[in-house]
Amino acid sequence: MITETGHFSLALALFVALAQSGLGLYGARRGDEALMRCASGAAVALMLLTLVSFGALTYAYVVSDLSLVNVATNSHSAKPMLYKISGVWGNHEGSLLLWVTILALFAGAVVLFGRHLPPLLKARVIAVQGLVAGAFLAFILFTSNPFMRLARPPLDGNGLNPLLQDPGLAFHPPFLYLGYVGFSMAFSFAIAALIEGRVDAAWARWVRPWTLAAWVFLTLGIALGSWWAYYELGWGGWWYWDPVENASFMPWLAGTALLHSALVVEKRDALKSWTILLAILTFSLSLLGTFLVRSGVITSVHSFASDPGRGMFILAMLTAVAGGSLTLYAFRAPALKAGGLFAPLSREGGLLLNNLLLSTAAGTVLLGTLYPLFVDALGGGKVSVGAPFYNAVFVPIMIPLVAAMAVGPLMTWKRTDLLGILSRMKFVVAATLLTGIAVWVLAGGRLGDLASAGGMALAAWLFLGSLWEIGERSMLFRASGPEVVARLKQIPLAAWGMTLSHAGLAIMIVGIVGSSAWMEERIQNMKVGETAKLHDVEIRLDSVSEVPGPNYAALSGTFVLLKDGKEYQRLSPERRQYRQPPRPTSETAIHSTLLGDYYTVIGEEAPGGGYVTRFYWQPLIAWMWAGALIMSLGGLVSLFDRRHRIGAPQGSRKS
């Protein structure tokens, strides 16, 4: 009965979404408040219906209702409860249901918390959300129904991919979807603004918190995925430039540009058309990521489906959304009034440079992701685009971007004195140079170490520059202590959030440079009692034993880390063999310190006796995830800024 209720709610949700869209658009066109209120009610009803449907599917997984094709294919009665629940979104059908549920939650949030939104704009935003939700609901019901029944249920299920039975992957997809779907709000605001023919500072202030929330969620989702790849896959890396990884990275880059562009619209009433275009492209890239993961055009541990029919449906949806919105943009964007003028050397100019570099970076990743697909489709065979391409093209784009980030917040609107700013930053310049020289000397003073020393200097420049901006605001070392404290209290939360995010990126760069430049790897066959050297420790294989798990059998090795002959740490990696589905996985054991990680993996038994073992020394890698968390915290702090909570006064825009 619960399953049937979920299925019925999903079907009813499609009609409610269509009603939400039609009532919103028609009511706004006629200026009919009753119809617009009905559209708002439909959005709340859609939110409740999708929640009921998602709850019903979750219940089916919890109780192992194997009469559902989706549960029988992706779950197993012996799975731990956490992975039964995460299995709901660990497959194609369930992940789409989660997607549309989050979409409905965002639309419902606009109704419940958008008190300051003008009725016409609000109705149009809700209507666009309804259109997108309707398209996804149709896709689910006609091609990917999670409530399909089996005539003869099996005795037990096939189980979930063992690589996905991990806490990191349990929470990684929901955060990603909150980011992907969150950008649909910026898209809906952009389409509503194009229909209305008006973009102003009030619009930018309304759209920024939704974009910022999506950016925070997507940042956390990408960081969780990177962390999972690092400790779960057992290859010692944290990013592979996999097409599915790129699928989440592209909207993050475009969304970051959108955040900064919306600030120019809010403060200076400029870059209106560009901001609208960025909102359209950001959500279009989110849909492109959905297509890549579910179309079968790529093969990855992250991908959900390999059904070309489903892929064509999503491709048609992507074409309709992107093509339709860009066509509307082509007709309506020229009518948007241009904003204030500004000099190239100004805060507006700095933010425009930020946008150009981020957009170019997103385009670079898009090219590297799609190029192999185009070559294969044209009969050119299989080609791969990997780290060498991205290191050669992407990294040079990011260097001037990061360099400009330290100076940008110190610039003034309309026109600024760049030389004056740099002269006030003499301490930051000196400290940056000293950092680069010190790192180069400590690394060995070789020509090949210049790049890593430059990366560390760039991180120091951004970190110190971000703090310097707060010092400038508070007149640190120039005013009395009480006045400095008073000025610090007056700094808006959005400014504190920006400083945290920029500083977090600097810390993240430290982790990226350190782990990329000075990683050490050791691969060998080891018997019990043998040792191997890694960085500043010796690693001894102390014992190997078989360990039973709830739904797997594991081969566990105990390694002792020795410093100066004394025991320093014990690590116990495992090689697991899951029963259903039958598949081996590597469970790493990692000892993390502030300076780096000692990373151990045990493999299969070697033919001549002993075991294949792999050890990695990953310098400063924990700084990377610490930086990502600080970046997300910065976005969260900005969200609590009172200006984001109340939006713009209702009287500033006619309704």
Write the layout of secondary structure elements.
Blueprint: H1 2-30, H2 33-62, H3 69-74, H4 81-86, H5 92-113, H6 119-143, H7 167-196, H8 201-232, H9 243-268, H10 272-294, H11 308-332, H12 347-377, H13 387-407, H14 418-424, H15 426-442, H16 450-474, H17 481-490, H18 493-517, E1 520-526, E2 531-534, E3 537-548, E4 552-563, E5 566-571, E6 574-579, E7 582-587, E8 589-592, E9 596-605, E10 611-619, H19 622-639, H20 642-646
Helix pairs in contact: 1-2, 1-6, 2-5, 2-6, 5-6, 5-7, 6-7, 6-11, 7-8, 7-9, 7-10, 8-9, 8-19, 9-10, 9-12, 10-11, 12-13, 13-16, 15-16, 16-18, 18-19
Structural class: alpha+beta
Strand residues, percent: 5-15%
Contiguous helical run count:
20
Major pleated sheet: 6 strands, antiparallel
Label the overall shape.
globular
Average pLDDT confidence is: 89
Please trace the helix and strand order, writing H or E for each element. HHHHHHHHHHHHHHHHHHEEEEEEEEEEHH
Instruction: Report low-confidence residues grouped into runs of 5 or more.
Output: 646-655
* CA(first)-CA(last) distance: 45 Å
Radius of gyration over C-alpha positions, nearest whole angstrom: 27 Å
The helix content, as a percent range, equals: 55-70%
- Count all strands and give the number: 10
Q: What can you tell me about this protein's structure?
A:
- This protein is of the alpha+beta class and 655 residues long.
- The protein is built from 20 helices and 10 strands.
- The strands form 2 sheets. Strands 2, 3, 4, 5, 6 and 7 form a 6-stranded antiparallel β-sheet that branches.
- α2 (33-62) runs parallel beside α6, α5 packs across α7 (167-196) and α9 packs antiparallel against α10 (272-294).
- The chain is globular, with a radius of gyration of 27 Å.
- The model is unreliable at 646-655 (pLDDT under 50).
